[in-house]
């Protein structure tokens, strides 16, 4: 099956899942996680209708964003301080912000480029040591600190669920949605209006994320891998 065919199949499946839980399919954006493919794979996905792509390495997002400026690029990987200028130069949305220090560096880099950088705060809802992000009880304070930076716009939250446990997946996604509602209620109206994104769900668990309120799902293997069923 070709990359365009797999991408369109994912879109159809996301639309069906939205309708099943009473949501408008337009509320959920599919980010094609292209970290395992090169320029040819991105070009195929673009031909199939994909417009949002996710990368987890600074080198890859800068190269691919330069090659495909018509696409919208998302940074979903661990943030390294020294690579923040590169990330800010290429990314429309940074999904994985987990510290004020990195937020301040992003603010500085965005100011130099004359842009306001959209970010999501990564939250470790499951509490797994292997997962990045801040603890849920620290997320609200970090969002409010970041919201005070003039060149950073906090758009919402991101999380990764435990793998292989459907009940834990649902609990993580529903927990992130509740946390986002709680944080939004503490923000000034202008900041609260912009705080409208929930990035959660990948190839294996996105249906539970959509049911819980995801606005962005990050799909890699189901689009780019021949091995995914």
Automatic annotation (TrEMBL):
InterPro entries found in the cross-reference section: Ala_racemase_N, PLP-binding_barrel, PyrdxlP_homeostasis
Keywords per UniProt: Pyridoxal phosphate
Residues where N6-(pyridoxal phosphate)lysine is found: 35
Organism: Adlercreutzia faecimuris
Record-linked Pfam families: Ala_racemase_N
Protein name: Pyridoxal phosphate homeostasis protein
All residue ranges annotated as the Alanine racemase N-terminal domain in the record: 27-225
Family the entry assigns: Belongs to the pyridoxal phosphate-binding protein YggS/PROSC family.
SUPFAM superfamilies the record matches: PLP-binding barrel
Protein purpose: Pyridoxal 5'-phosphate (PLP)-binding protein, which is involved in PLP homeostasis.
